[in-house]
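User: I'm putting together notes for a lab meeting next week and I want to include a structural view of one of the chains we've been expressing. I don't have a solved structure, so I'd like a prediction I can at least talk through. The sequence is below, exactly as it appears in our construct file.
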Amino acid sequence: MGQDIPTPMRLRVASKVLSLLVALSLFRQADLFKHLFSDSLIAIVPDIILLLVFISGVLACIGLFKEAKWGFIPLYFYIPATTMFMKLSLIPYLPDLISIAYRGHMILAINSLVLIYSVFLLLRRMDRNLIYEV
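Assistant: Thanks for the context. Below is the predicted structure for the 134-residue chain, given as structure tokens.
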């Protein structure tokens, strides 16, 4: 399945899918980002970290949607930061299917798999035979 689709086309679609996953996670955590504009001095996650995560998510979404290789750099900051500080999964609603006791492990596993896939995708895009085709 998918063997008749040229490799550059598959890499473009994979970049768009990663961009869509980042955009969905940004929309899902929009309520966390409204904390940036509040006057509350007490916060669980400091505002500067939230701002950096939001900016890296937006840059990753734009870069991956434009199929630029620089879009992977903010993605490599966004995935671990979202996992550690906000405990949100990049694939929505999948961790909600298991019990709360194992939800943190599921989020870590999902985001780790997405991170490994994005590294694999960047390595495929950097392949010598595909540099001029993509």
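A couple of points you could mention at the meeting. Helices lie at 7-28, 30-33, 47-65, 72-86, 103-125. The mean pLDDT is 82.

User: Perfect, that's what I needed.
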